[in-house]
Amino acid sequence: MYKIEILDKSNNLLARVERLVSLDRAKNVIKFNDNLSGFGSCRFRVQTKDPIASRDLFEPYQNYIRIRKDNALVWVGVVVNNPIRRHEFIEVEGRTFAWLFTKVQVAHTATTPNWREVVTGTMAENLTTLFNEGKDRGHSPIGNFTLGTIQNPKFPWDTATDWTFSAAVSVRYEYASLFQVVNSFAGMANADWFVTKDRVFNFVTQAGRNRDDVSFRFGRGGNISDYNSPLDGTGMANDLWVASLEKAGSQIISRNFNDSSLFGRYGRLFGSSLFPDHLDINILSERGKRILELNKRPNTEISIILNEKALPFGTYDLGDYVNISIKDGPINVFEERRVVGWNVKIDETGIERVQLITNMRLI
What we know:
Elements: E1 2-7, E2 13-17, E3 20-21, E4 28-35, E5 41-47, E6 64-69, E7 72-85, E8 89-96, E9 110-111, E10 114-118, H1 123-136, E11 146-150, E12 154-155, E13 158-162, E14 171-173, H2 178-189, E15 192-195, E16 200-204, E17 210-217, E18 224-228, E19 239-246, E20 252-258, H3 263-266, E21 270-279, H4 281-295, E22 302-306, E23 321-328, E24 331-347, E25 352-360
Parallel strand pairs: 11-16, 17-23, 19-21
Antiparallel strand pairs: 1-2, 1-6, 3-5, 4-5, 4-24, 5-8, 6-7, 7-8, 9-10, 10-14, 12-13, 14-21, 15-16, 18-22, 19-20, 22-25, 23-24, 24-25
């Protein structure tokens, strides 16, 4: 049984949402999701004339939403939107706490022009400083967050050396949010980050675990009811150019990466990425290599819909590596894959539909 609760910012219970209105023709009444190194969302509707709707509990950024399944906490976030308010119902949208990083500006270290330059200290030290500055700003939306595990990664191009910024390895950001900078740091170092349900910020070299005990299989007697395994070539590029502003000014720097072994199979497919950050050439190069690795073949993201034979939702986490087996006509998958997102829908009878989104392991 799923339950929705509304809390104030001190975690005091304000109300329980009990009479829900269907969101769609499938009569789903609750939808929620989350994503690794990003944010998730939830949606539900209440009757406009329900007493709970008249208490101003759903004004954006005023209160929190908590979703429980059989008393286990499965989703927590902040009210951000009422996209529909009409005679029949009010629709409420929430986002997980990581969303609030998009509403925190990173302080500038220079004013003409305005930018934040990172040229000293480890990545972990700079993340700690940036987080604490954002938390301590007046009326900060993350004022009640706390700092958890902040690991310092190694240089991807020198895996024996801790990541330390210097004149040779530096970045610069202009009018950036904390979300943008944390995501940028994670992208540079191939790291993960997340904010827990208790509003604790963590930055780690890799979230999740190898779950050899968790397997999902499609077919007779299996625990996958359906799947989607698209081969998306729209973003493919095996001849890639990456560019950014040079770390100390407005000059453009660029690098080219390609995998000529794939030209014969797919053709020479051009692609480009321009980053708004001021980057060091080593950082730009690592980003280019990673983008090429992700995009030189058709995207093989696989989403699976679980049935009642699967392990209960919540017994595995974002970032975990699980085993997936699908043998169905031309679809032949038997491999370890990483859980990078999930979507859950609950209909008016309480039946849940869990979808896991997985990616391949990158070496």
